Amino acid sequence: MSSSDSVKVLIVDSPFANMAPLYEVDPAADVLLIVPPSTKPFAPWDDPTPITTAHKTSKALASTSGLRIKASSKHLSSASRVFRNKLQHANTKTSTQSDGRVHLSLAEGFTPKAVTIVLNAIHSRGSKVPRAVDLETLAQIALFVDKLQLYDAVEVYADRWISKLEDSISDAHDRDLVLWLYASHVFRRAEVFKSVTKVAVAHSTGPLRDLGLPIREKIIRDIDAQRQALISKSLGILHNTLHELASGKASCSKFSCDSFLLGELVKTLHKNKLAPWPRPEKPFVGASHAAIVEAINSSAQFQWKSTGPAVDLWGAPVNGTEKILSRKRKSPNQQPITPESSPEPVSRSGSSFDTHACDARKLLGGFDELDGLEDGIVGLELESSLGFQRY
Questions:
Q1: What b-and-e string marks burial along 286-316, b requiring 16 or more CB atoms within 10 Å of the CB?
Q2: What are phi and psi of 311, to 5 degrees?
Q3: Which of 37, 93, 318, 368 could be joined to 310 by an S-S link, Cβ 3.0–4.6 Å?
Q4: Are strands 7-10 and 323-326 parallel, antiparallel or unpaired?
């Protein structure tokens, strides 16, 4: 849907005149802006299902009601080229209705709440503009601003809304991530946009779903290109380790650590839809770098029990103690529980550790490189070094 298709001039009285509530932005209004009822949910994460009479929830019922808004053609024309063009066209067709106003109907998909917030901003009714909005409303406002080219009219408000919300950005690949991506792009918040795209590169499992929002294809394509490059590097580390283990170059003659580690690596790759042989190739649909690292660092991975001699934290023998070797990512505040001189891996789930060393166990330290790959994610830049918009 293009910007020009987002609003149309009605040449008959509003069909919602006796149905939709009336909201007054300008008491001397010469325009009646109509927000039609919606039959679909906004930006659905799952496949959208049209709302029917046979199946309606209370939330769906509330979201379908339309709204009529009394507004000023002068303010609308000043704020939006789209509105200006439509109103000029309306004047040439003498489209004034019986109530003395030009009736403009928005396309379906805009919400009454978002439209009224923006129109209050356009008409300089700052006291009616909320100081804070939730992410859902922010994205709905972004859609209206994007389609009607109203960025300049709400820039100051958008900066305040986003500043109050940005601490809530998580590192999950979910609907909120897509809403943040779209809103930060529309409102030109370069730092937020870059941060969100970095999360998408690490956590998405394929090209991002646009959820019906007009997210530019180049944004989705560039994020997925970085995702694929990152997974390629992850697989390089894992497959080099697989080769060392399968070829016997990293062996263990005491507890067959190499066999355990080889099996866990193969299981991890299968779990992430990356069967190790033959080596997976792009586009790695269904896989993410974050999921691979999570599986590697999980407490359920790379741990096994042995029955050999154990020692306590100071190296004294401990008889009859069951040991668990477990590799876990260290937290920034975690202190080692063994002397600094000890080269041995530490059991984070028990009070003892196995002192034997083998080439297979040494490979565990190499997986820290997987964690470091995420630090090298570039993300997307909204502007070039010369100040031009990239997206």
A1: ebbbbbbbebbbeeebbbbebeeebbeeeee
A2: -130, 155
A3: 318
A4: unpaired
